[in-house]
């Protein structure tokens, strides 16, 4: 084959690396995989360097890596030291907390001591065993239980604030004593916790601290509302001062719903005391 034939012979296609299009997702995945492989290779070396040898009185954790101190021991500067249970305390046998609690009737003063709960006279030990409360009839004052001075005609009450006693029915508190309530004639004691402790009987009204009889005029009846004169006029009568006067109903009018006034019929209007036709 001559030189000219070689020049005209077709050549196989050549790959130009500079012109290969880069597949971005594939390239990124390969790059991340190489980093993860390096980390996984170096991780055991790091873990072995950072981990500490298991000390005495410790055991491997039941889950995960590492170790933890046995029950009755606590971690102190990479060592498991025994829990020191102070006097008047007991071992909790727990892996958390201080490892001990005070006995019933004792309280913790700091992180290493239990002292007896001093119950004052008139008090009792709380069920928790860590504090005290006062008996009924006593009140807490600082670190003591003082007896409540109960006046005559009074009884004890349970109250979170205010007085610890209240007066019997028929008596009212006057300072530190219970005095009898003066109930006037024709009145009775009520159950109100404030204000007037008595109420007038039916047919009577309060006036100047007494219960006066309601004077009901002719053509009227007793009205027990808490306001007004204490009586109302019958139907067909109107109140005038302390009497009930007959109502003269004009022509083309009738008594209204109350029965104590009149009003004009339909198509009529009031004019100078009469009912005149609407124009």
From TrEMBL:
Gene3D superfamilies: Laminin (2.10.25.10). SUPFAM superfamilies: Growth factor receptor domain. Keywords: Membrane, Transmembrane, Transmembrane helix. The chain crosses the membrane at residues 27-47. It comes from the Bacteria. The keyword Membrane applies. InterPro entries: Growth_fac_rcpt_cys_sf. This is MSP1 EGF domain 1. It comes from Roseisalinus antarcticus. The lineage of its organism: Bacteria, Pseudomonadati, Pseudomonadota, Alphaproteobacteria, Rhodobacterales.
């Amino acid at each position: 084959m001559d030189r000219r034939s070689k020049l005209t012979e077709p050549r196989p296609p050549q790959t130009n690396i500079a012109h290969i299009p880069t597949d971005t997702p594939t390239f990124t995945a390969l790059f991340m995989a190489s980093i993860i492989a390096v980390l996984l290779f170096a991780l055991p070396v790091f873990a072995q360097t950072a981990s500490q040898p298991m000390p005495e009185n410790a055991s491997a954790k039941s889950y995960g890596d590492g170790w933890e101190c046995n029950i009755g021991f606590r971690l102190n500067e990479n060592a498991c030291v025994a829990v020191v249970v102070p006097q008047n305390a007991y071992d909790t046998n727990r892996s958390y907390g201080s490892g001990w609690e005070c006995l019933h009737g004792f309280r913790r003063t700091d992180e290493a001591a239990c002292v007896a709960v001093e119950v004052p006279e008139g008090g009792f030990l709380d069920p928790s065993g860590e504090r005290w409360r006062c008996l009924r009839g006593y009140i807490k004052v600082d670190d003591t239980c003082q007896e409540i001075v109960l006046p005559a005609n009074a009884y004890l009450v349970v109250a979170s604030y205010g007085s610890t006693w209240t007066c019997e029915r028929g008596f009212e508190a006057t300072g530190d004593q219970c005095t009898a309530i003066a109930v006037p004639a024709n009145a009775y004691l009520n159950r109100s916790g404030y204000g007037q402790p008595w109420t007038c009987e039916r047919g009577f009204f309060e006036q100047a601290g007494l219960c006066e009889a309601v004077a009901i005029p002719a053509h009227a009846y007793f009205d027990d509302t808490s306001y007004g004169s204490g009586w109302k006029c019958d139907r067909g009568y109107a109140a005038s001062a302390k009497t009930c006067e007959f109502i003269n109903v004009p022509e083309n009018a009738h008594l209204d719903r109350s029965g104590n006034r009149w009003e004009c019929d339909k198509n009529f209007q009031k004019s100078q005391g009469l009912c005149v036709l609407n124009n």
